[in-house]
Amino acid sequence: MDDKQLFEARFKKYKGLILRLIRRYAKDESIIDDLAQQAFVKAWIYRDTFKGECTYSTWLCSIAINTTINHLVKNRGKIKVFDPDYHFDRVPRYFMYSPTDSIASDLEELLQVERAIKQLPEKLRTALVMHTLYGYSYEELAIVLEVPIGTVRSRISRAREAIKPNE
């Protein structure tokens, strides 16, 4: 199989996965295809750096996520924490902090949490959102964010502590 065929085979095999992944972060449909193409091109350019320590799809996903996050940060876009169509009743208990330790049903309280999250440093916000809203495990985040698992745990813990209301 020549280089062109290999690239086309990988693109065809992983295109759906990469598009779904990018949609988790970028809500603007007009840039999703461009970001996917950029991720595939970067993966192709740096294919010699793939060491096989993880699966090719995991490596490609980390490139796609980093490409997307870099694009959003560069263009002053932020990872969308609360989507207008998001069903707040599905927010995990441990994410929302309230005096009764229950899911926040009051819209004002949700808005306060959203404001607190928006004020977090980018690294803390990214780890918290990816873990809590998108369900990434600590292990997956360590791979995607290219940091040790202890750093992931620390960032999430610090983010939760920072958004916890003073009682």
List the helices and strands and how they pair.
Elements lengths: L2 H21 L5 H17 L10 H19 L32 H12 L3 H11 L5 H8 L3 H15 L4
Keywords:
Rna Polymerase Sigma Factor, Chain: A, 62% helix, 2 domains, elongated, Arc Repressor Mutant, subunit A, single chain, 167 residues, mainly alpha
Summarize the structure.
The chain has 167 residues and is mainly alpha-helical. It has 7 helices and no strands.
Structure characterization notes:
By secondary structure, this protein is mostly helical. It folds into two domains: 3-74, RNA polymerase sigma factor, region 2, helix turn helix motif (Rna Polymerase Sigma Factor, Chain: A, Orthogonal Bundle); 88-163, Arc Repressor Mutant, subunit A. It contains seven helices and no strands. It has helices at 3-23, 29-45, 56-74, 107-118, 122-132, 138-145, 149-163. Helix 1 packs across helix 3 (56-74) and helix 6 packs across helix 7 (149-163).
Assigned CATH superfamily of the largest domain: Winged helix-like DNA-binding domain superfamily/Winged helix DNA-binding domain
Derived from helix and strand composition plus strand pairing, the structural class reads mainly alpha
As a whole number of angstroms, the C-alpha radius of gyration is 18 Å
Tell me the fraction of residues in β-strands, as a range.
Answer: under 5%
Order of helices and strands: HHHHHHH
CATH uppermost class of the largest domain: Mainly Alpha
**What is the third-level CATH name, the topology of the largest domain?**
Arc Repressor Mutant, subunit A
Query: How many strands, which pairing sense, and closed or not: the largest β-sheet?
Result: none
Q: Span between N and C termini?
A: 64 Å
Helix content: 55-70%
Average pLDDT confidence is 76
Query: Number of helical segments?
Result: 7
Number of domain modules = 2
Strand elements, count: 0
Instruction: Assign an overall shape.
Output: elongated
CATH architecture of the largest domain: Orthogonal Bundle
Instruction: Enumerate the spans where pLDDT stays under 50 for 5 or more consecutive residues.
Output: 77-106
